[in-house]
Write a structure and sequence with these properties.
- This protein has 46 residues and is α+β, with helices and mostly antiparallel strands.
- It has one domain.
- It has one helix and two strands, in the order E-H-E.
- A two-stranded parallel ribbon has the order 1-2.
- The structure holds flavin-adenine dinucleotide.
- The site of flavin-adenine dinucleotide (FAD) has 15 residues, from helix 1.
């Protein structure tokens, strides 16, 4: 099983995870983010 580490929970990081999941349903994904809150899309703020 592959292991992935994604740094940054913005749209790039989340899109990367979606891309990985679309081809690897079993890989272990660790997301490291500096955000003090849960993931969110900044473009949606406005
Ligand atoms: C208020 C606002 C409105 C916007 N509206 C639009 C819009 O309408 N349309 C549009 O196209 N774009 C818009 N943008 C721009 C858009 O948000 C960015 O282009 C987009 O978020 C970039 O995505 P990203 O994942 O590359 O970076 P980011 O969204 O900046 O995500 C990077 C992530 O990495 C994390 N990070 C940073 N350093 C570290 C570290 N050392 N360790 C761990 N994690 C770290 C951050 O906490 C963050 O979660 C808007 C931006 C803002 C602020």
């Amino acid at each position: 099983m592959k292991k992935y580490v994604i740094i940054g929970g913005g749209i790039a990081g989340v899109s990367c995870i979606e891309g990985i999941r679309s081809v690897d349903p079993d890989g272990e994904i660790t997301l490291i983010s500096a955000e003090p809150v849960s993931n969110y899309g900044r473009p949606l703020i406005s």
